[in-house]
């Protein structure tokens, strides 16, 4: 897919922007704090209806007004589509080809993106929550139904946790807890199965890409670590039963601690390089390469799932990669995906390798070619 143009109104530090993006590679160049990342964030939001760096939509609204708007025209396999997203204190409104979408899930994924930013190193180095967010964002893009299940799971989890906080060992309403357990397991099983499936596919691509970047010296493997031991991923009813059994096992502990201890909200995944866990034993360079391999794998995975390559958003990352890895990155995306790069200086970008590049100067919320 290809983003032909983007339009912003009162979005972050952009009062009004209309930008044609006819090139395969688009480099946004400028000093710090001018609005380069804000531009990538807006493209990201057009794909997922939310920012990659904040969960608070109101932060996206420019200080000069009370509504922010992002619009874009995207060429896809079957034709052009216009997307329009408005944020206000009342929430967000999304339109596809001028038609307002009652469900945001119809809008999400109309354009697909893969973002690679310095903080992605945290997917390897950081806490399980970062990895779960990574999984959820990526699966949600290709399967919007997943996000709906996740929301339903979150609601049950919250109610269950609220109840556990007030319950004491002598005063447990078992009938009520059973109802929540069943709902938690019903949605939880769906989430776990989707995660398992996604990780399996990601592994296939990431292993190949990682081997390419490291000249075959490193084998990357990705392991799903659910919150309870199970090998019953294929059979939903067996997995459901195991989930229910686990909840029974941890019941007393949950009542004591006032929190739900089993379920996908406590899942994790682990990355191994040549059999050694990258989070613990990997060097900074190996961890960075792992994060890069994951992102490049996502590009292939999205193509496989939806039959079209996503847009690639590279936020200030080229300067962090050595020549070898930069070349690998550029060669991987160049022919396949339209790319948007932010940088503070062209010297950090291997321009000689880039074909069909448009360079845009970003200054204080305005863009010139
Ligand atoms: N809601 C908002 N309304 C107006 N301006 C905002 C809003 N949110 C952030 N900004 C401004 O946007 C600017 C930051 O833009 P951005 O994060 O895109 O920087 P950048 O050009 O990517 O810089 P760097 O190279 O440091 O990453 C800051 O000047 C900040 O004050």
Bound ions, cofactors and other small molecules, one mention each:
adenosine-5'-triphosphate
Strand order of the largest sheet: 2-1-4-5-6-7
| The named CATH superfamily of the largest domain | RecF/RecN/SMC, N-terminal domain
CATH topology of the largest domain: Glutathione S-transferase Yfyf (Class Pi), Chain A, domain 2
Class of the largest domain in CATH? Mainly Alpha
Approximately how much beta-strand content do the residues carry?
A: 15-25%
CA gyration radius, whole angstroms = 22 Å
Counting DSSP H or I runs of 4 or more residues, the number of helices is: 10
Low-confidence stretches: none
The count of DSSP E runs of length 2 or more, i.e. the number of strands, is 15
Explain the overall architecture.
It is a single chain. The protein is of the alpha/beta class and 369 residues long. It folds into 2 domains: 1-112 and 308-369, Rossmann fold (3-Layer(aba) Sandwich); 115-307, Glutathione S-transferase Yfyf (Class Pi), Chain A, domain 2 (Up-down Bundle), CATH 1.20.1050.90. Helix content is 43%, strand content 24%. It contains 10 helices and 15 strands. A hairpin with a 2-residue loop joins strand 1 (2-11) and strand 2. The longest helix has 40 residues, at 174-213. It is globular, with a radius of gyration of 22 Å. The two termini are 22 Å apart. Adenosine-5'-triphosphate is lined by residues 12-13, 30, 32-38, 59, 61-63, 316, 342, 344.
């Amino acid at each position: 897919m290809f983003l032909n143009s983007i339009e912003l109104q009162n979005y972050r530090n952009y009062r009004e922007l209309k930008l044609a993006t006819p090139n395969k590679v688009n480099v946004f160049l400028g000093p710090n704090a001018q609005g380069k990342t804000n531009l990538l964030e807006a493209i990201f939001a057009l794909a997922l209806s939310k920012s990659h760096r904040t969960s608070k939509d109101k932060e996206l609204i420019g200080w000069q007004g009370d509504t922010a708007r992002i619009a874009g025209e995207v060429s896809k396999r079957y034709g052009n589509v216009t997307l329009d997203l408005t944020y206000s204190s009342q929430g967000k409104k999304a339109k596809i080809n001028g038609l307002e979408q009652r469900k945001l899930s119809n809008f999400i994924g109309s354009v697909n993106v893969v973002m690679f930013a310095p903080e992605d190193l945290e997917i390897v180095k950081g806490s399980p929550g970062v990895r779960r967010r990574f999984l959820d964002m990526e699966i949600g893009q290709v399967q919007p139904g997943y996000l709906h299940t996740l929301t339903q799971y979150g609601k049950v989890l919250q109610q269950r946790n609220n109840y556990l906080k007030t319950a004491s060992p002598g005063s447990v309403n078992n009938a009520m807890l059973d109802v929540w357990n069943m709902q938690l397991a019903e949605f939880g099983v769906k989430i776990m199965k989707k995660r398992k499936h996604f990780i399996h596919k990601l592994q296939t691509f990431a292993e190949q890409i990682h081997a390419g970047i490291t000249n075959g010296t490193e084998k990357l493997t990705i392991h799903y670590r659910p919150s309870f031991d199970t090998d019953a991923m294929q059979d939903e009813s067996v997995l459901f039963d195991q989930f229910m059994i686990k909840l029974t096992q941890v019941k007393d502990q949950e009542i004591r601690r006032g929190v739900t201890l089993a379920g996908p909200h406590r899942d994790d995944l682990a990355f191994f390089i040549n059999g050694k866990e990258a989070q613990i034993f990997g060097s900074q360079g190996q961890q960075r390469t792992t994060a890069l391999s994951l992102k490049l794998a996502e590009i292939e995975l999205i193509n496989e799932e939806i039959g079209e390559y996503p847009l690639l958003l590279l936020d200030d990352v080229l300067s962090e990669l050595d020549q070898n890895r930069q070349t690998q990155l550029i060669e991987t995306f160049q022919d396949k995906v339209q790319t948007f790069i932010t940088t503070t200086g062209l010297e950090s970008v291997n321009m000689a390798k880039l074909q069909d590049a448009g360079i845009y100067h970003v200054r204080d919320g305005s863009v010139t070619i």
